[in-house]
Amino acid sequence: MPESKSKFLIPAVGAAVVVAGSIAAYTYFKGSPGGSSDALGSAKVVPSTALMATYITTDSQAWAKLQQFGTPEAQKLVAKGLEDFNKQIFSDSNVSYEKDIKPWAGSVMIAVLPPNPVKPAQLKVPSGTTNVPTNLQQESNILIVVGIKDKLSALNFANKLKSQKGVKLQESDYQGQKIIETTQNGKPTYSVVLNDSQLVLAPEKQAVEKAIDTFKGQSSFANKEGASSILKGVDVKNSLAQIYVPDYAGMIQQLTAGNPQAKQLPPQTLTQLKQIKSVVAGVGVDDAGVRVKAIANLDPQLNKFQYQSSPGNIVGQFPADTFALISGNSISRGWEVLVEQSKDYPEMKQALEQARGQLKFVNLDLDKDIFGWMNGEFAFGAIPSNQGVLANVGFGGALLFDTSDRKTAEATLTKLDTLAKTQQINVANRNIGGKDVTEWQIPRQGALLAHGWLDQDTVFVALGGPIADAVSDRKNPSLDTSDAFKAVTGSLQKPNGGYFYLDMDKTKTVPLINSFVSSNADTITILNSIRGLGFTAISPDKSTSELEMLLALKPSVK
To answer: DSSP letter string over 77-144?
Structure first.
């Protein structure tokens, strides 16, 4: 971190430390007495123009729950990172987080206000510059509300800040409230204490003034349309943070308008965004790990997708060592919605027409032969293998589809087999576990691809001959009975629309990730503390969509 930035964080009354998560990190390792204003109380001083807000708790019991997870190596790594961060933040000062900030700083609300346009006078262009930007980017506008849980400790910290070298303090009055401008290295931070219980900070004075107006009675985020209903938050155990977006489309529209690099949203896109009216999300910790839940309130008139829960039976068709899985229901219905929506998007419609035209050259109808028969449950799984064509990759994949139109599915596979033969690929039949399997074979490496029927309604396509064996031979345990799958997905909502599942506890998973993504030793240490990742979604009705994600963590070893 540059020295100038480190110095700037100190006179901001610890705000950057709080926002960056230092409170959370310190509480995680050392604990802290709880107590602060709740989300509703904080929202009452946030202007109603706020686009979104995040509420972070410093309740020691919630954060202490994290102490039950993580390998000793990972905990040491996080502790060292925290120590280094602390040294950077408080270098060149006698400020101590433990003594000076933690005793008084309560829970935090971070609100995003509409961006402020950059005035031409603020733009400093070096002399001789020929290419002067004509489209100026708007500045982000952040407002922070910190609950004060110990007034005396907060006063002692404020007095201590005044003694710091190079810190300039200037007071001004607005609506009978004292605004403190704290400047160091030419960068000001504005703050005000409201009702002796809330510290409000912002890099822009106007934002603090708007907070004071709100405190004096102007419309607040708490009573903004769409916000009042979501401020109750999402029910997660040991809540660490809650995120509130009362007008999703409006937020995206304003943030996009403030970014000159982003294209203006076309009317069709804005219509799509308006399907989502508001979003609220919560992050918490329970016995399984870190859990995230989000609820999107939808406009039933604009929502074209008809949700249907997935039976979940297809998971049982995969072997227990499957380390990644995506499942769902009715690809054909999703395709129909996509085709319908493409009518409003010329570029998407053109791309679909091009795809249809290219497949016609090989005697395939994209709508009927590819997607039309995929009307049941489906899943794609990654399965480890180092044999044949998979020797260098280390894994293969299997696609499974339940269908009520076996005739069309068989006709499509026959067309694909014929196409493969024209490319000098040997297409042969093999019996695996009593099932007839068709393989695309290449010399000296075995099967490149295989397909067959597991039962009357379930067809599979396997990438690699060994994967066809693993899927077809049901002698081995299935994925849904494995301890890993149960640990990661067992606590997710049911019934649901399907799963995203990633098992990080497999001995081959981390090395595989490392082979595709450049990772250092520290990253591997953190990955080794994660048991797996699970994700699912449900939609109780056309006006609600609920998402749930679990980052399953390994228990700590004392």
So the answer is: HHHHHHHHHHHHHTTTS---IIIIITTTEEEEEEEEEEEEPPPGGG----TT-----SSPPPEEEEEE
List, for residues 21-71, the tens digit of each pLDDT value: 333 444 444 444 344 468 999 999 999 999 999 999 877 788 888 888 876
Count other C-beta atoms under 10 Å from residue 4's C-beta.
11
The helix/strand/coil state of 496 is strand
Residue 521, helix vs strand vs coil: helix
Question: By the 8 A CB rule, do 113 and 207 touch?
Answer: yes
Q: Phi/psi of residue 98, each to 5°?
A: -60, -45
- Tokens at 522, concatenated: 């520290």
Q: Say if CB 532 and CB 503 are below 8 A apart.
A: yes
Amino acid identity of residue 43, one-letter, is A
Amino acid at 544: T
**Residue 353: how many other CB atoms lie within 10 Å:** 12
Tell me phi and psi for residue 437, to 5 degrees: -125, 135
pLDDT at 79 > cutoff 80 = no
Burial class (CB in 10 A: 0-12, 13-18, 19+), 399: middle
- 45 within 8 A of 52, measured Cβ to Cβ: no
76/148 Cα distance (integer angstroms): 31
Spatial CA neighbour of 327 closest among 454, 458, 216, 427: 458
Report the predicted TM-score, pTM, of the whole model to 2 decimal places: 0.84
Quote the DSSP letter at residue 4. Answer: H
Query: Are 101 and 157 in contact, with CB atoms under 8 Å apart?
Result: yes
**How far is 221 from 19, CA to CA, in rounded Å?**
19
CA distances from 105 to 101, 151, 191, 230, 237 (A): 6, 10, 14, 25, 23
Helix (H, G, I), strand (E, B) or coil at 247: coil
Separation between Cα atoms, residue 398 and residue 468, nearest integer Å: 8
C-beta neighbour count of 223 within 10 angstroms: 12
The conformation of residue 543, written as its DSSP 8-state character, comes to T
Task: Decide if 531 contacts 487 (C-beta within 8 A).
Answer: yes
Contact 310, 327 (CB under 8 A): yes
Question: And the tokens for 258?
Answer: 């403030």
CA distance 508 to 514: 10
The CA distances from residue 342 to 131, 305, 351, 371, in Å, are 39, 14, 9, 16
Q: Looking at residue 509, what is its pLDDT?
A: 67
